[in-house]
Design brief:
Blueprint: H1 2-5, H2 7-14, E1 25-26, E2 37-38, H3 51-77, H4 94-112, H5 115-119, H6 127-130, H7 135-154
Parallel strand pairs: 1-2
């Protein structure tokens, strides 16, 4: 999927950090080593890893683990995404289910934080910033919610 997406060509050509240095995708075994994709250092026969290589591998393992936490949070709240027998491309809208689950999980993270944010000492944006809602839109939405709540509260459930 990565190769077919066309991201490889765009990433190697356009993705750079603030200083102009090229950025890389850190791979697991699902990715091939190719330009712009790097993996963990491996010890060679009779030669161990250099200290810098060992530190790099340990650091990157932590980063990779944080990505796995993100996938884990999605399947924790939307377990059906992990039921491969029920998710068949062409028979169910797999992409729509997954992207909706990611969106709602991100909303949850905005409201309650995450293990990853705690680990990296990063606070998520407010839900309003996440959706790029302006102050005026926020006020209008709050008025609507308050009005809707008052209408629902005023209705007698026995009627």
């Amino acid at each position: 999927m990565f190769k077919e997406s066309g991201l490889q060509a765009n990433r190697t050509e356009y993705v750079k950090d603030k200083e102009g240095d090229r950025l890389y995708v850190y791979r697991d075994k699902a990715f091939y080593l190719e330009p712009g994709v790097i993996g963990a250092y491996r010890a060679q026969k009779d030669v161990g890893l250099a200290a810098e290589e060992f530190v790099f591998n340990a650091y990157m393992a932590k980063q990779r683990m944080s990505v796995e936490w993100g996938f884990g949070k999605i399947t924790q709240y939307f377990e059906f995404n992990n039921l491969w027998k029920n998710m068949k491309i062409g028979l169910s809208p797999v992409g729509a289910y997954y992207f909706t689950s990611v969106l709602l999980t991100n909303c949850h993270t905005c409201s309650y934080g995450s293990k990853m944010g705690f680990s990296f000492e990063y606070s998520p944006p407010s839900i309003w910033k996440y959706f790029h809602i302006t102050e005026e839109e926020n006020e209008a939405l709050t008025m609507f919610i308050n009005h809707f709540s008052s209408v629902v509260d005023a209705q007698d459930p026995d009627e």
